[in-house]
Input
Amino acid sequence: MMRWIGVLAVVLGGVATAQAGQGDLVIRAHTVWTMTQGGIQEGMVLVRAGKIQAVGKDLDVPEDATVLDMRQSHLMPGLIDAHSHLGLASDPWAEMDEAVFAASADTQVLDAFDPRNQGFEQALRGGVTCALMSPGNRNPIAGQMAVVKFCGGAQAAWLIKRDAGLKFSLTQAALRYDRRPTSWPGLITFIREQLDLARQFDGETFDPQAAVLKRALDKALPVFLMASTPEELGAALDLIRDYGLDGRILGAVQADEVASRIAAQTVPVALGPVVRLNKDRDLKRAGQLAAEGVKLAFTSGAPETAASDLRTSAIYAAKYGLDRELALKGLTLHAAQMLGVANRVGSIETGKDADLVILGGDPLELTSQVQVVIVNGNIVFQREEK
Amino acid sequence: MTAFKCFIVSFVVICAMTHCADAASLVIQAGRIIPVSGPDIEDGVILIEDQKIKALGTDVVIPDDARIIDAKTKTVMPGLIDAQSRLFLLDSELNQTSGAPELDVLDALNPFDEAYREVLAQGVTTVCVVPDSSAMWVCRTALLRLNGAGSVAEMCLKSGVTVKATLGMSSRSTQSSSLERLDQYASMREAFIGAQRYLKQYEKYEHALAQYNKDKAKQKAESDSKAPLKRPEEPSKSPTHEILFQILRKEIPLQIEVHCVDDIRHALRLAHEFEFSVILDQCTEGYRMARELAGHKVPVIVGPVSVSRMTMPALAYDHHDPVNAARLSQAGIQLAIGTCAPTGLDSKFLGSAAAMAAAQGMDRDAALRAITLTPAQILGVADRIGSLDVGKDADLVICSGDPFDSFTRIEQVLIQGKVVYERKAAQ
Output
């Protein structure tokens, strides 16, 4: 009866495995959670050249296709982490943020990204295939974010979106004793000043800082504001309103009284990390925000919490009142929409990237284990039972 | 005087009333009983009298005057036991660097901490309170019931459960070096050598004292007063040595928090050399040496299963793997799962921790046992709690279905036959 579960080596670097190859791949599953057309019982997915070619119940299996018969298992799109720092630095807390310049709008997180980072294995083990890579919280204007996949290889394989957004930090962490801002009101004033200056930017002079902020003001670049307490959230909502930003909120775990305001301004929220919360009051937040009509995604803030625990966050949110379908969409489709990459990932639909997760059971059960992870049609993680 | 009489009378009345209340039988009609100690029972009945399980099975005779809880569509299981909780500890007690073996956690508790309510609502009825300290010697631990008594004495199921110690934890924020960890091993070993020396001296003294008493009695009987006998002098003892004696005499187990493989080996080596009962605590890298560990036949309290809820030294963080509990269990190690998390509230995730261990390949029955019967056995209270068996305390959980299902609701929780939690309809 003893079952040894071994983890096969993760194949990074976009190298096709024997199973996937260049030929077609057909996956059969107990349920295919499409995210756009609900769950298909005894469904099938046909993968061709890294993309989803067809989804349905009784698809024709091409003669030379490799068939992955997982009829006991559930299939869902690769999970998307709406805020992560994986692979950015060997010591993310020490090296991630500029220490001197509080305004780092022109820094790009992509310049620090290591596409072969060891930490990805953990993310993949949790079924997380894609993430919004983000600078830390220590600068009010933190830098530009990118959406990547944890598959390594050539940049074309892992980079989905370079200009995913500009991050602002409205948290305590952005205050420092040795440079402006040093106080909470100073922080808000600082951000407003920078935005006001950028408004006057004419494009003639060399001002990389203002050039980026100008794009944010023109809604050409989405803005992600890290804010957790009601005060921080209130300030974030004011900034979005006053400057007409294409804003999203990161964190929001203490959104109590602000929930209806977030809904009224229709600002999407990347909530989390939920897995760190422990008060019933806070755990119910996802359900409350969704009830107000707020669109939700989930974040790990990895390595703040384990990248592999992203699904756990959604499970806790659902256990404490979030609609199950919204919990699943928060991990996939809604996250993809929030990050502006829904044309590529986030659902199992014809034409989208074949980024898929196979689980031993219902995706919202803690006891269901990730068995196989596929990115761009290649198996990048497989758990083997010995 | 009158006041005193009044007090006595009312005391007797209250006692009688309490007794009456306890004497009445309570019957739970369950759709499914998971006793943990044996196979599940479908459509069973649990009879509770005097705070204890009087009978359980499918053919229990229901007394006429029994109060009945209808749980015919529900599942009943034992109350969960968190073998590593911070509940009832003040926040200021967390992340400490001090401690001593003679300290008793009972003296540091805040019995009014309301956090227990949310933990109880998730089916946890007993917690072993262990402070979060990186000191080599932390303190003696205690098992507390979440009965809301508001008094440590009434909540305490057992004190002096273990002595908590740590190895290899000298630096929390930065990585400790293997030399640093070796140094700690040497320090603990030195402490035991000292204690052993004292123990020998003390046993010699006890022996001499017995001889003295015998001689004295003999002298008295013979009423022969020759040379006056000299009473042997008791060796001086320190409170620390008192406790270390108890450990060496196997009266109390030593629970050693270890993370790295070398720390685990150090703990096992000490237990072997000084022949004390050891419980390995957290045992983060245990999965890397599961077979070796199994050979030592020592119990393990593993946790946290999920890396996201923990405060651990960076060293342990690097090699933490959620598969740990599953691997140790598969190797046949006696294993309890504790939440081992930064705050008391985190004890509410005990069931989730076991479910996550099951996801990693731990047998589901073993995972449930790891949060019920096994911690009771490891912590020496299996005669009282941990499973649904005749004679044990009626600590049980009534839930809507499979304990590991994410959406199973906890309906009612009983401690010693008393309903201490009931789910509100709106929840």
In short: The interface with chain A takes residues 118, 121, 306-309, 322-323, 326, 330, 341, 343, 345-346, 348-349, 352, 355-356, 358-361, 363-364, 404-407 of chain B (CB under 8 Å). The domain at 1-77+388-427 of chain B is CATH 2.30.40.10 (Urease, subunit C; domain 1). Chain B has two domains: 1-77+388-427, 80-197+236-385.
